[in-house]
Design goal:
By secondary structure, the chain is of the alpha/beta class. The chain contains ten helices and 17 strands. A hairpin with a 6-residue loop joins strand 15 and strand 16. The chain is globular. The protein starts with a strand and ends with a strand. It binds nicotinamide-adenine-dinucleotide.
């Protein structure tokens, strides 16, 4: 184990803050890394709640002002786990101060914000990464590897869905995810962003044009007016000639976190559903699909964990993300997905919104 340490400060301590804390805590225990992260500062807005989070999650100190966090010499990495309305401001300030930045997705709430973040990343000697964690699910990483090896041949179809059901009840209150000024968009940016990134990552093709529609089924909730989409659907043209269909919704009753993706190529197909995240289904044509249990030591990331068949969970994808981020920092290379990749997803989100509003096909700018 290395003696080289690196100081981490994290902003936001709720859902993503808890998951990221778990990753920072465990990554050195399972992976042999060139840098050992030290969980120095956790930052929230209210003193008492941040202090409680600090104790539970294992951080050294608690602060209530992210600017103070960024000004500290003992912080080398800033981990942004806040809603999208604060990503750009925190990331740009942290990069200007020479801190490495890992930022939750979607990168920003608008394309201009994302452009400013990419410019800040390019101007800084520090490294930056956007946290599309699903790339680091072993089955998804394996899917990407199989496509890159040519096992599917020429990819013709990309079919992706991200289905949840947590706001089917019209009495569910108006949380920040349902407010455009805080979240940027609804199902589209929250979960649609994940399938856009996963589809591009697995297929090796970029989305170059879209035709979309969005819907808000419940416009008024306890707490006020919903200003984002509840569901977003679009079809897409991709850079390698494939066509794609995408669906992101929070109204798929009974579906909890069904991130599904299927690719059909000239030689074969593959299928993944996060609700059975240790499995990848593959087909070479004639005999339908067969299951690969993605728990073998030679599968991506798996060798660091448990014996075959002892499955991994949601949190492991974040540990893998942190591992890759630390290795990139140590090697002086750009982590993937970079802020530029995050901007590319943001441009697709914007094109879908514009297409839905105008009722016509839009190229992704
Ligand atoms: N990668 C994933 O799978 C995944 C899953 C969920 C959320 N996210 C993303 O993570 C981000 C956070 O989402 P979440 O679900 O953790 O939200 P959350 O509501 O659970 O937590 C947000 C946290 O940010 C804090 N916060 C808000 N504004 C702040 C500010 N100005 N300064 C300091 N702290 C502030 C809140 O106190 C809270 O601790 C969003 O960008 C979201 O899209 C990613």
């Amino acid at each position: 184990m290395t003696d080289r340490t690196i100081g981490v400060g994290m902003v936001g301590y709720a859902f993503m803050g808890r998951v990221h804390s778990q990753a920072w805590r465990t990554v050195s225990a399972f992976f042999d890394l060139p840098l050992r992260p030290e969980m120095r500062v956790i930052c929230g807005r209210t003193k008492e709640a941040t202090e409680t989070a600090r104790r539970r999650m294992g951080w050294d100190e608690a602060l209530t002002d992210w600017r103070e966090l960024i000004s500290r010499d003992d912080i080398d990495i800033v981990d942004i786990c806040t809603p999208g309305d604060s990503h750009a401001e925190i990331a740009i300030a942290a990069l200007a101060a020479g801190k490495h930045v890992i930022c939750e997705k979607p990168l920003a709430n608008t394309v201009p914000e994302a452009v400013s973040m990419v410019e800040a990343a390019q101007a800084s000697p520090a490294r930056s990464m956007v946290a599309f964690n699903y790339r680091r699910v072993p089955a998804v990483a394996l899917a990407s590897r199989l496509v890159a090896e040519g096992r599917l041949g020429t990819i013709r179809h990309v079919r992706a869905q991200y289905l949840q059901d947590w706001i089917v009840d019209p009495e569910y209150p108006l949380v920040w995810r349902l407010q455009k000024d805080k979240a940027g968009s609804g199902a589209l940016g929250d979960i649609g962003a994940h399938i856009i990134d996963a589809a591009q990552f697995i297929s090796g093709q970029r989305i170059v044009g879209v035709s979309g529609l969005t819907e808000t089924f419940v416009r008024d909730r306890p707490g006020g007016r919903v200003t984002v989409d509840d569901a977003a659907l679009f079809v897409a043209r991709m850079s390698g000639g494939a066509v794609g269909s995408f669906e992101a919704t929070r109204f798929a009753t009974g579906r909890k976190n069904a991130l599904r993706i299927e690719l059909n190529g000239s030689l074969g197909s593959l299928y993944f559903d996060f609700e059975a995240m240790n499995e990848l289904w593959v087909s070479s044509g004639d005999e339908g699909f067969t299951r690969i249990l993605v728990t073998e030591p030679d599968h991506p990331y798996v060798g660091a964990w448990w014996p075959p068949g002892h499955g991994l969970g949601y949190e492991h994808s974040f540990t893998h993300e942190i591992k890759d981020f630390l290795e990139a920092i140590a090697q002086g290379t750009d982590p993937s997905p970079s802020f530029a990749d995050g901007l590319r997803v943001q441009q697709v989100l914007a094109a879908v919104e514009e297409s839905a509003a105008e009722g016509r096909y839009k190229e992704v700018m």
